[in-house]
Structure formats: structure tokens, C-alpha cells
Design brief:
This protein is an alpha/beta fold and 240 residues long. The chain has 9 helices and 7 strands; from the N terminus they run ααβαβαββαβααβααβ.
């Protein structure tokens, strides 16, 4: 019988294979910078010369937005292919292909640490959050975007999860996420809706027959309360 550590290592290896061989199989070095990332940067009040770490940074679109505006950027991701794209687009950045449970950075290194739409895929979310706390400066912003188990469309049985359920996708309620954050030593200061779906690029994905349905879903998210949202941003501080 495998020990817990062996099981976690095997699960992490399987997740890495999914991202490397399927999720990023056809990725290239071209980046499109979504408008909602510029809005997020402004909302957080990040400014030039600050240091930003994005955990599970993917191909680096969020980091590229911040680098263009003068921030010093770093990122980690399981996928070598995703990290190669980051390095190609941001040669002055600091990028590592590794897991988030042992971040390759010194204590108190960053003014802001983000993890956007990825924590639900981590094998040890609490341990990874503690690592984010370790590398964050005492007054750093920690911003986390996570999916909500009480998303109304999910509760109605219409939505079953993303493509990444094939790897691992553990979705929690907002209260459950709050407890996870608390275990890692971070305190939620504010929360808000993720409305990136209010864009033609999201609505026009897939079959044309589904475009009106996707448009309706996007519009409903603007009026639904936070507890029914698909994804929710959490702006946090370190609870020392």
C-alpha cells in the first residue's frame, strides 16, 4: 500500500502530465492580454517597481500585463511548456517549472502574490497557501480566485466543471474556502465577482448554437449575488 506522501507525489505527477500533454499541448508563445486583467491590476492598486508572484501562472498573461506597467514579475507553474512561453515573452522575469508546495523564493520577497483560478487543482492547498504566505512581505496583498460550489448553474446540474476535472478539481463553498485560507494564516479582507465572461471572446467559444446561452449566463452573473457566482476573488492579508 502506498504511503500518503507517495500518493500525493503520484497525484501531482498525473496532474503535471495533464497540463503538459493535454492542456498546453498546442500552446505557442503568442499572448493575448485580456482586458479584465488590466482592470484587476488597477483594482489592486499595483504600481511600477513592486514585485509580483503569480502561482500557477500558466502562459503568463496576467504577469505580462503587470510587467508592461512596470512591475517586477515572477511565476511558477507545473508545465514546462507554459513556463517556456513566460520566459519567451518576459525574459527579465523569474520563472520556474515546479509545484507550489515548495516555492523557490526567499522569505518576504513579494509585494503581491496571486493565484488565479488554480487553487482548486492543488493536491495540498493549505500547504501551498502557507508557502505563499512565507514568500510574501508582511504587508503584501494576497489575491486568490477560486470557483464556488454554490454556483447556481452548477447546483441546477447544468454545469459540471471545467476540462481540468480530468486532472483534479475540488470545488468548495465560499465558507469552506474561507476556512482553508484561515488554516494557512491568511485573512480575507474583501471579495468580489469574477465577470471576465462579459466578453465576446468568452461568449463565442464552442458551437454557435450555444452562444445565446453563454451570453445569458454572462448577463445573469452581473445580477446574481456573490453566493451564486461561478468564481470569486478574495483579497487577503497575512494574519500575523
Amino acid at each position: 500500500m502506498k504511503k500518503p506522501n507517495d500518493q500525493a507525489a503520484q497525484q501531482l505527477s498525473n496532474i503535471k502530465s495533464f497540463y503538459e500533454d493535454i492542456y498546453y499541448a498546442d500552446c505557442d508563445n503568442k499572448l493575448n492580454l485580456p482586458r479584465h486583467y488590466f482592470k484587476l491590476k488597477n483594482r489592486l492598486g499595483l504600481y511600477a517597481e513592486q514585485s509580483l508572484l503569480d502561482v500557477a501562472c500558466g502562459r503568463g498573461e496576467w504577469l505580462k500585463v503587470n510587467q508592461k506597467l512596470g512591475l517586477r514579475v515572477s511565476g511558477i507553474d507545473l508545465s514546462e511548456k507554459a513556463i517556456e512561453t513566460c520566459r519567451a515573452n518576459m525574459p527579465d522575469g523569474d520563472f520556474h517549472a515546479c509545484s507550489a508546495d515548495h516555492l523557490p523564493f526567499a522569505d518576504c520577497s513579494f509585494d503581491a502574490v496571486t493565484c488565479l483560478g488554480s487553487l482548486e487543482h492543488f493536491v495540498d492547498p493549505v500547504g501551498c497557501l502557507r508557502e505563499m504566505v512565507r514568500v510574501a512581505k508582511p504587508d503584501a496583498q494576497i489575491v486568490i480566485l477560486v470557483p464556488n460550489l454554490d454556483f447556481l448553474t452548477r447546483k441546477l446540474g447544468i454545469f459540471g466543471g471545467t476540462q481540468q476535472t480530468d486532472a483534479k478539481e475540488e470545488v468548495r463553498t465560499l465558507d469552506e474556502w474561507g476556512k482553508i485560507f484561515g488554516q494557512a494564516g491568511i485573512r480575507v479582507e474583501s471579495r468580489w465577482k469574477d465577470l471576465h465572461v462579459l466578453s465576446w471572446s468568452w461568449i463565442a467559444k464552442g458551437r454557435k448554437l450555444m452562444w445565446p446561452v453563454r451570453a445569458l449566463q454572462a448577463l445573469l452573473l452581473t445580477v446574481w449575488p456573490l453566493r451564486w457566482q461561478y468564481q470569486v476573488y478574495h483579497k487577503c492579508s497575512i494574519d500575523r
